[in-house]
Amino acid sequence: MDNDAHQRMTEKRNAGYEKKQAQATLEKGLVIVITGTGKGKTTSALGMGLRAVGHGMRLGVVQFIKGAKPTAERTLFEQFPNVDWFTIGDGFTWVTQDRERDIATAQKAWAQAAQLIGNSNYDMVILDELNTILKYEYVGVNEVLATLSKKPAMQHVIITGRHAPDALIEAADLVSDIRPLKHPYKEQGVKGQKGIEF
Fold first, then answer.
1. Whole-number Å distance between alpha carbons of 67 and 89
2. Residues of the chain with confidence (pLDDT) below 70
3. What is the pTM of this model?
């Protein structure tokens, strides 16, 4: 591409961008769903959480399922005074192998999540692995949708996990489906490592 063609292309893109910016005047709290079978759902949500913390916003995080292991993310986020982090899980369901226990733990975690969603002091709430809880029907999707419908108007709620239910996808403002194209764990036998963890 020559310089003239490049300039025409970038001018056209800039005009389109400015037009969209001028039309986007509404501010509201968003329900964001990050789903799919690829790596990076929690990482994406926590990236937005870190951005919120950097803006001085109050962040609440509830981790479903992943409670069996300490994480570097939790260690970092707990250092910030405007973050409340709750890990309420016994580990992945294929490790616990106890449905009744998993249901009880999920219900406890959901009660904490609902409390955060109902509190307008929280600018953002991250519900990590809630989709998995919904898939296994440890918490009912209608209960979640009812709670989300009453959230404070400016609060953002980010929900992660595989297999987001259709009703949640429909209710969300933004949905990302992360799909794996290549993964070293599966294809090369590379194990999870610090800073990358699978």
1. 4
2. 68, 90-96, 198
3. 0.89
